[in-house]
Each structure stands twice: as C-alpha cells, then as structure tokens.
C-alpha cells in the first residue's frame, strides 16, 4: 500500500515591505512521505517570499521532475518564473533559465557544492539566478512547532467535524442517527 501525503494548513500574514506586498495567505501544503519537514518549510517560505499574482505550487507535486515546485504564470499560462527548492542540478537550472524569464532557488543546503558545480557547467543567464539560503537552524526551530500546531489543529478539526455532523451542520452522514423532527417523523410512520 502506498503512503499518502500529509496535509498541512498554514495561515501566513505576509508583510513584505520591500515589495509592498501585504496578504493573508491560507496555504494548504501536501507533504509527500519522502519530503522532509525542512524541505516543506523551505517550499512555504519560497512561496511567501515570491508571492505575486499567478503564483502556484506544482500540480504534480514533488513526483514530477519536469516541473518546478513553484511557478508564476501570467493569465495566458505563459511561464514567468521558475522557483526551485533544495539543491537542483546545474542541468535543471539551465533548463529552468531557458523556460522562464526569472529563476529563483531557495535552499537550506550549503552553497559550496552548488557553486562548484555551477562553475563547471554552462547555465543560460546564470547571472540572473536568484539564490536564497535559509539557515538550517531557523528551519529546525520551526519544524517541531509546525508539527505540534498541525497535530493540535488536526485534532480540533476532527472534533469540529464530529460536532457539526451531530448538529446537522456538516452534511449528512448516513451512519449518523436521525435528528430532531426527522427522528419524530420516523416514530410517527
């Protein structure tokens, strides 16, 4: 049996003064079983720091190596920005820089190995590549907090769904006993 992704619900109050971007983001991130919490958090920060109209997480998730984890597209579907996470190969960055006007890389990895590889390979418009390095210690501090918050939120959502079903607000579940007038109608029949 294949493992399924774990859903995380993160609410972010984005206030990017430098770019004049102020948004309340309601993010739902699917964490693939092979994905570390650090990688997922890096994806979340990449999305927030790159936020603009047309941004989206990849539809294929992490399993599609041909697609960027995050993209920005114009209303016609034209790829404007390719946003990669982690430590992609120089070949992947070359492909990305040919496919989009803007390419950004968000990583928590040491930059030394990537820099050495980039010096030995040809990358289209390498000077335009924006690299953001997130401190691993910062992400490690957040990991247990996000996991703990999500565990509490998941328990709360489960209890709220059960309560809503009992009160008739969460949709009918055929396994639930009849409610109020429905129960009285069944008694009189």
Describe the structure.
α1 crosses α4. The protein has five helices and seven strands. It has a five-stranded mixed beta sheet. A two-stranded antiparallel sheet has the order 1-2. The longest helix is centred in the C-terminal third of the chain and has 32 residues, at 136-167. Helices cover 39% and strands 24% of the residues. The protein has 189 residues and is of the alpha/beta class.
Please name the defining characteristics of this protein.
Restriction endonuclease-like alpha-beta roll fold, disordered C terminus, 5-stranded mixed beta sheet, alpha/beta
Number of helices in the DSSP assignment: 5
Molecular shape: globular
What fold name goes in the CATH topology slot of one domain?
Restriction endonuclease-like alpha-beta roll fold
Radius of gyration: 22 Å
Strand order of the largest sheet: 3-4-5-6-7
Average residue-wise pLDDT: 78
**Count of beta strands:** 7
Q: SSE layout and pairings?
A:
Blueprint (H helix, E strand, L loop, with lengths): L5 E11 L4 E11 L5 H13 L5 E3 L12 E4 L5 E7 L4 H10 L2 E6 L3 H10 L9 E4 L2 H32 L12 H9 L1
Parallel strand pairs: 5-6, 6-7
Antiparallel strand pairs: 1-2, 3-4, 4-5
Helix pairs in contact: 1-4
In a few lines, what is going on in this structure?
The protein is of the alpha/beta class.
